[in-house]
Design goal:
The chain has about 280 residues and is α/β, with parallel strands linked by helices. The chain has a single domain, classed as TIM Barrel. It is built from eleven helices and ten strands.
Length: about 280
């Protein structure tokens, strides 16, 4: 198994896309991505269609996926217990993802709940996941700062990570929701958290502009992070954050960077096909 885990996030790329992407196109794109060899595919979300209308067809898309010859695991985003129950009806899904913000303002905007209410949701969703033998991935939204003038420092993030860890959460991705991370705060968080909270696998869900991706990825990797979220062509970001200037890390950049470090065991032809389809959809 590859040491580096690449999590491809077409859900994050699609969710803020204004024009509705036809269900058949989504299925074609995701099936191409399933052939590439990513560790995980963040493919859809079980949230209110009013909140994310682009992903209202997640169940239809799931029904069209060909999982017969892929090792890639499926991850779906949920924002409450009802969404988790809906997602857990589908055996094909291995992971649920929940956005847990260390910004009170963003948590209310994103999931219509306070931080403490969200902690209760996490506890309930974690119990459901354990019953179904599924993994729960917690995304620490606004993990590197926020645009609301709310207090932020590494100690705040570490406090919430500890609380989540005590609840048995095994995968936590530090998320740079609005692109304010930099090599200093990335290194600071990962170098403190990875040695201290050994039972948790930490990931990086970083947003950046095309000029800053490399310094961010290097800072995370050199600080011990081995799990990276990205999207082909760097499309996406958080529609709730209202910032069009930053997008996801571009998967092709990560592949180029990590290929010099280890064999990622990706299928090059499938990767090229996926890039071509991405260019058709996101133009």
């Amino acid at each position: 198994m590859s040491e580096i885990k690449l999590v491809e996030c077409p859900r994050d790329a699609m969710q803020g896309w204004e024009e509705f992407i036809p269900t058949g196109q989504k299925i074609r794109y995701l099936n191409s991505l399933l052939k590439v060899g990513f560790h995980t595919l963040d493919f859809g979300s079980f949230v209110s269609p009013k909140a994310i209308p682009q992903l209202r067809d997640t169940e239809e898309v799931l029904a069209g996926l060909d999982l017969s010859s892929t090792k890639t695991k499926l991850l779906a985003i949920v924002a409450n217990v009802r969404g988790a129950e809906q997602a857990l009806n589908h055996d094909e899904i291995s992971f649920l993802g929940f956005p847990f913000s260390v910004s009170e303002e963003f948590q209310k905007r994103n999931t219509n709940s306070t931080i403490e209410e969200s902690l209760i949701r996490v506890e309930e969703i974690q119990k459901l996941c354990i019953k179904k033998n599924k993994g729960l991935v917690i995304y620490i939204s606004m993990g590197f700062g926020n645009p609301y003038g709310e207090p932020w420092n590494a100690e705040i993030v570490i406090k919430w990570v500890r609380r989540l860890s005590v609840m048995g959460i095994k995968i936590i991705a530090l998320s740079d929701t609005v692109g304010v991370s930099n090599p200093v705060n990335i290194s600071s968080l990962f170098t403190q958290l990875i040695p201290e909270v050994k039972e948790v696998e930490f990931g990086a869900h970083l947003h950046s502009n095309p000029l800053t991706w490399l310094e961010k990825v290097e800072a995370a990797y050199q600080s011990g992070c081995k799990r990276f979220d990205s999207a082909l062509k760097g499309i996406g970001g958080c529609p709730m954050a209202n910032d069009d200037l930053v997008g996801n890390l571009a998967t092709e950049n990560l592949v180029s960077y990590f290929k010099g470090i280890q064999d990622l065991q990706l299928q090059d032809a499938a990767f090229r096909d996926s890039l071509a389809i991405a260019a058709e959809i996101f133009h």
